[in-house]
Structures are given as C-alpha cells and as structure tokens.
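Record minuted for everyone:
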Amino acid sequence: MKKQIFSATILALILLGCSDPKAATKENFEPVINKYLSENKDIFSCSYLGNNFPFVDNTGLRKKHLQKYVDLGLITEETEVKMHKGAFMGQDIKVEINTYDLTELGKEHYKDEQFCFGEPKVKQIIGFTEPVDFVGQKVTEVDYELKLENLPNWYKIDTKKNKKIVLKLSDDGWVILK
C-alpha cells in the first residue's frame, strides 16, 4: 500500500512539473513566441522594398533582391543596355538599366512599399540557454525556426529562418523580454 501511495505521489509530482508554466521547456516557450509573432506579423511576414513603382535601377544594385519577385510574377523587369562613352579610363562601357513595375498580381499584394504573405509561426524550438539571473530577472535565450503558414500556392520562396529571442520569467510564466 505504501508503495502505491509513493508511486502515485511521484507520478503526481512529475505531472505537476510537466504542466508548470514557469518551467523552462520548449512547450512553454512556443506559445509565447507564437503570440509575439502574431502581434508583430508585419515584421516577419513582409518584405520591405521601399520603392514606388515604376522603379528605375540605374546601378543594377537591386537586381538580385528584386529577382525573386520577378520570378513570382509580382513585378516585371525591362532591361535597357546603354553605352557610356569614355566612362572608365576612356573606355566605353555597357550599363544595364532595369525598370521594374508591379504586375496585376503584385498590385494585389503590395501595400505601404512592401509585399506581405502568410502568418509567422514557430516551426520548432531548436534549443535554449539555461535560465540565468540578469538584472534581477530570470532570462533565457531561445533559438527557434520560424516559418510562414497560409501562403498562396504560387509562393515558392523558402520562408524558414532561424531566429533568437530572449524570454523572461514573470509571475504568470514566460514572456518576451522587451
């Protein structure tokens, strides 16, 4: 009988420990981070371009960044090659001038100089540091993999990224350290 009571007590303590919102566990961290991602959705699901369209790139510096949106059919690209006479040590050089504009699909998804797609979520918690005392608060750094869900079927850019965030222990459990 004593063994059964002892076993039941141990089991109850184990179960209580598993559901402790103050425990440093992946299960406790994930909903806190997902709430933060949801509240700050634009930071994680939008790509800021900072352009009004049509946009002329005289230098070619934006070509690599904008190419993924051209490939998705969100913007068009027209290239014009011009010769600049004697531009480099008296030599003529070819210069590509690219003009970008929104397609009809791009116009549907472009707002406030950015494209926004999907909802950010934690794909997985990769790991976390052992909580330590820092300025009177118990904190931990959490490494997680972020992904975007509910993307359009045609959206083919890999959205998985590894991120870090610092959480602190409050009276009610873990929260984002701001």
About this structure: Residues 51-112 form one domain. The radius of gyration is 26 Å.
